[in-house]
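B., you asked whether I could sanity-check this one before it goes into the benchmark set. Here's the sequence:
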Amino acid sequence: MIESTAKNIVVTSNLRKGDSVAVMGGAHALELLEEISLECYRNGAIPMMVVTSDRYAKRVYSEIPASTLALEPKGLIGMAKASDMLISVEDFEDPSIRQRFPREKLQARQKANLPLNKLLTDPKTGKKWLYAGWPTPSAAKMWDVPYREFEEIVLGGMSVPPQTLMQIGKRINRKLAKAAWVHAWDSKGTDIRLKIKGRFRNIDDGIISQADYDIGDRGANLPAGEVFIAPHETVGDGTLYCPITQDRMSDRIVRDVLLEFRNGVLDLKRTRASKNLSALRSSFKECEKVDRIRFKPTRTRNVAELGIGFNPRIKKATGYILTDEKITGTIHVAFGLNKGYGGNSNSTMHWDFVTAPGINLDAEDDAGRTTSILENGRFI
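And here's what the prediction gave me:
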């Protein structure tokens, strides 16, 4: 399993001979990191490994002051600049440890990493990057799912051939070809309209192709399996129900989220959740505070992405956004950054909210004609 996963990751990376590759991740995935590095060598690329651990991270966030964590990580930035590709595997064996890190220190580290984020997201000069999931018993416990089931979600999802994902993605893409608007609704509270006219439709098949690179889409996630679009950022209205998600700052589980947006802008005051609502609101406010200084216009709460999940091996929501957004029969809407795949917004925020399975989705052309894409979560 480790060898095949490493091969999938390197195939996705689409490396060239002589490429410099930074391979990063947690010590719990050391065998995988080693196999990825060896596979890079086998393909003529030159890897460099960077390894962290839960124990080290806990001590950093316990012992090191926020003022130090806010300093720019020049060595890491220098490594990224010298690399042609950055491959990241999950840092933490137990991702729940982040929930206990002081929020002010997480904010400090986020600000320190802004130059690094720019390196990865700039559509003209950005580096190629890949983020891969990796299952552990501790992560399964955090997501409240049996380990074998979680392993099937992550590794099963990663095992779907790119050719299969591309075939499914192309079928969805054809139905969107003449769409000016999309309308999604369900019985849970979702009812949204977004404008997508003239925006590029990205098919996530798990490969960073040259065509992807040329349009500025430099990154990939594994598991893959979605069609995603940057909708018009200042247009679109509605409400969206997301049964479970993960706070972007603290990793706390947020449940039963009901979002409302008007003219493309999320209304935080009208946002509801049954668990950890304050964490959700704080994350948007904290990112918006940074964005007001760094970016004009400020787009922290503007719609950034419409995604349609279609990975056939991923069928259950856990709160792990990396896999939830690929669930067949769901859509997701993100807010914040979309500069790297056809949009106009820069932000320190990018947060995907995935609907419950069973969504209905129509595409509508300029003449008002509709094409059904999903009916009660089933592709038409």
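One thing to flag: The first strand starts at residue 20 and ends at 26. Otherwise nothing jumped out at me.
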